[in-house]
Amino acid sequence: MKTAQTIITLCAGISLLFTGVAMAKKSSAELGETLFNDHTLAGSTNDSSCNSCHEKGKGLEKAAENPELVKAINRCITDPLGGEKIDGRSAQMRSLKMYVLSLHPES
Length: 107
Hints:
Layout: H1 2-24, H2 29-36, H3 50-53, H4 69-78, H5 91-102
Helix pairs in contact: 2-5
């Protein structure tokens, strides 16, 4: 009986783990907004977030025209925030891009 219960618990744990991994890989503007406002983004070494400099998208009006948007986002993360670069193919970066582009949809 105890073995069956252990197996069920283990299977449930593995299922939750894979669900969390799948969710972590999904990009969305909502996740981007959360990251944009997160003062711990990419190991930031100060109490600033992207929103600290770009409140309500200030200064990002032409982001959609920037062919190197990922590099620009990473420059902000490494310089003003003092964090580490984020992989351009990651769900975090895709989400940040989605959110930044959603700030000025008419651009």
